[in-house]
Amino acid sequence: MSTPKTLFEKVWQQHLVVAPANEPSILYIDLHLVHEVTSPQAFDGLRMAGRKLRRPDRTVATVDHNVPTSSVQDRLHILDQISSRQIQALRQNCKDFGVELYDVQAPEQGIVHIIGPELGLTKPGMTIVCGDSHTSTHGAFGALAFGIGTSEVEHVMATQTLPQDKPKTFRISVDGALPYGVTAKDIVLHIIGQIGTAGATGYVVEYAGSTIRSLSMEGRMTICNMSIEAGARAGMIAPDQITFDYLKGRRFSPAGDAWNLAVEQWSQLVTDEGAIFDRELHIDAATLTPTVTWGTSPGMVTGIDSTVPTLDPSASEADQNNFERALEYMALEAGKPMQEIAIDRVFIGSCTNARIEDLRASASVVRGYHVATTVSAMVVPGSQSVKAQAEEEGLDIIFKTAGFDWREPGCSMCLGMNPDILAPGERCASTSNRNFEGRQGRGSRTHLVSPVMAAAAAITGHLTDVRNWKFKEAN
Ligand SMILES: CC(C)[C@H](C(=O)O)[C@@H](O)C(=O)O
Ligand code: SF4
């Protein structure tokens, strides 16, 4: 019998072109996703070298980071010069190099990590890269998916391969039923809080266990998305019936006999019994609570029913300094109950939490209520398709009636690269993935939360324990 293998090892081995000793291996890349920010120099490099794209048919581009979300009109006439130039460059490059581009008005447009899965471009067992750190999202399908730098983007464009050092493997098993009010976002925030933002550096994480198995694809994507915030090279979840059901019938999913064959092959993509990981962590789901960040890194988390932590005198000097700096930046005092933190803005969006299920969850909290008078709140669907689906279900009406701004798809307030930013000093409950200093605009203060927690905060005007929420029925 052959040695038991992990899911990662199977995908890795199936894509090895060569594996020379003492040098990085060369991996074949199945799918290359492209957006406007990290591709211009790569295309320029190809142009200067007089090269073509090796596999334009395995390359797909969209615009997400820089597009305004205020109105279709604003997207067609982008005022910001840098954004406008980057998007214009992507249009020209895709034309010159024969790449499919889902432009602002295309029904397929959206955040790159949202459209890959929803179009069925993302498939189990693939290698997927993109010049974007949150490419880890696609690992939820049992793909090996990771972010690459601009020079690597050029390498993949030219050769459809990538030199890679083999990462180590780390299995994080979460078992048991999720307590009421606890979501996939809370699981991943908890994990990052526990292992730290460098806790998975050098590893590919496989999420396993009954809790993970019970999650929808949306929830699994939320978890894999934030793997990078724990430093991981990638996050992966073995494909199963939930994965197959999600993919069936999607535009680029196999159909007919090819579907049955694909499912048969995808079903092999599980970690074999007895396979050895370099590291393992077990989490009991019963210990999880709705989790929120208080500081300026995704690892600075606490339970919503807890308080802003106090300085740990046994921590290293560097950690103590970081801690104090974070409190100062966030304008918080140690010991303050999390639920007493008032917020100015709410952002429901991003590749972490702007899929249809996320919007449904937020809407279920919002239904029948109104946004607090002190709060300005927005919902930014992750893609045109999510937006259309939400509108079909009437979720937009629930949000708009409650006083939320209902926007066009894009990265939006997840990062300050488009007009959706916080004013200096403003505090936001956000469903995104990063709360770094200045992430949502200069001087912005971010609390990372789940979609239901963001919705509850919008209504009450402060961080709120969604476990006590009184849901109102549709009338
Ligand atoms: C702009 C892009 C390169 C960046 C990333 O790599 O993640 C962005 O998507 C982010 O989330 O910070
Ligand atoms: S939504 Fe945010 S995290 Fe995701 S790709 Fe866009 S900027 Fe990056």
Write a structural description.
The protein is of the alpha/beta class and 475 residues long. The chain folds into three domains: 7-164, Aconitase, domain 3; 168-239 and 267-287, 3-Layer(aba) Sandwich (Aconitase, Domain 2); 295-468, Aconitase, domain 3. It contains 17 helices and 19 strands. It has helices at 7-14, 40-49, 72-76, 81-97, 112-119, 150-159, 184-195, 210-214, 217-225, 241-247, 257-266, 317-330, 350-353, 356-366, 384-392, 395-401, 451-460; strands at 16-18, 25-28, 31-34, 59-62, 100-102, 127-130, 144-147, 161-164, 168-175, 203-208, 234-236, 279-284, 291-293, 301-303, 345-348, 376-379, 405-406, 427-430, 445-448. A five-stranded parallel sheet has the order 5-4-3-6-7. The protein has a five-stranded parallel sheet with strand order 17-16-15-18-19. A four-stranded parallel sheet has the order 11-10-9-12. Helix 7 (184-195) links the parallel strand 9 (168-175) and strand 10 (203-208). The longest helix has 17 residues, at 81-97. The protein is globular, with a radius of gyration of 22 Å. 53% of the residues are buried. The structure holds 3-isopropylmalic acid and iron/sulfur cluster (SF4). 3-isopropylmalic acid binds next to loops. This is 3-isopropylmalate dehydratase large subunit. Keywords: 4Fe-4S, Amino-acid biosynthesis, Branched-chain amino acid biosynthesis, Iron, Iron-sulfur, Leucine biosynthesis, Lyase, Metal-binding. Its cofactor is [4Fe-4S] cluster.
